[in-house]
Amino acid sequence: MALQAIIPRMSVPAPLSIDVSFDLICPWCLIGKRHLETAITQLRAEQPDLAVTVEWRSVPLIPDTPLEGLPYRDFYVARLGSPAAVAARQSQVLDAALHAGLELALTRIETFPNTLLAHRLVRFARQEAGPAAAAALIENLFTRYFTGAENIGDPQVLRAALEACGIATPGLPETPLSHDLPWLPPLEDVVHRGGTGVPFFVVDGKLGVSGAVPPAVLVQAMQRALAQRQVPA
């Protein structure tokens, strides 16, 4: 009888989950998003068989912003105390963004928007078309706001973002987007978290990482989470 070689079957690791709490008005969330993308690419280079899933968790920081928005510069002067303080903060953000490969148009933004409708649309995209569609819409909205200086509280801008991402909505395409549309998912479960720091990453349901940390820190957190899987309970 011929001997048959027994080839051990290599086990494929379970996907690594990453939950990201974010708000679309936060430039650090966009910077953190870029760092996360870099970190995932680096981890996959080391472990090509590892799948990584990312879920985006809406945390509207200032849900009481008027639906029409506020003058951008006036909002930040009132929040930070002076034009000099605003300039210093923007310089810090712009420098961090450049290190992440981003050029932000902070000096061209005119409206500080209410993001509740945008977040409801992200949730709709996730429910109807899956996490990839939600991620695409988030990226589109970040880009429109922080590099295109568009008002992402404007229903027409939101409609354009949906169309650009190929996300269909019930009713006619020309139907104005508003909070009273019956198909929009609610946000009551997250609005109460306004003021929570973002971005905030939860790796594999166990390790939390706060802030727009460098990619190396995120890679270390992911490696640590994977290592903890090997530790007996």
Briefly characterize the structure.
With 233 residues, the chain is α+β, with helices and mostly antiparallel strands. The protein has eight helices and six strands, in the order E-H-E-E-H-H-E-H-H-H-H-E-E-H. A four-stranded mixed β-sheet has the order 2-1-5-6. Strands 3-4 form a two-stranded antiparallel sheet.
Please tag this protein with its features.
single chain; four-stranded mixed beta sheet; two-stranded antiparallel sheet; alpha+beta; 233 residues
Give an overview in words.
With 233 residues, the chain is an alpha+beta fold. It contains 8 helices and 6 strands, in the order E-H-E-E-H-H-E-H-H-H-H-E-E-H. It has helices at residues 27-46, 72-80, 83-99, 116-129, 131-146, 155-164, 188-191, 215-229; strands at residues 16-22, 52-58, 70-71, 111-112, 200-203, 207-210. The strands form 2 sheets. A 4-stranded mixed sheet has the order 2-1-5-6. A two-stranded antiparallel sheet has the order 3-4. Helix 1 (27-46) links the parallel strand 1 (16-22) and strand 2. Helix 1 crosses helix 8, helix 4 (116-129) packs antiparallel against helix 5 (131-146) and helix 5 (131-146) crosses helix 6 (155-164). The termini are far apart.
State the strand order across the main sheet. 2-1-5-6
Largest sheet geometry: 4 strands, mixed
Count of distinct strands: 6
Mean of residue pLDDT values: 91
Structural class: alpha+beta
Give the number of helices.
8
Low-confidence stretches: none
Helix content: 40-55%
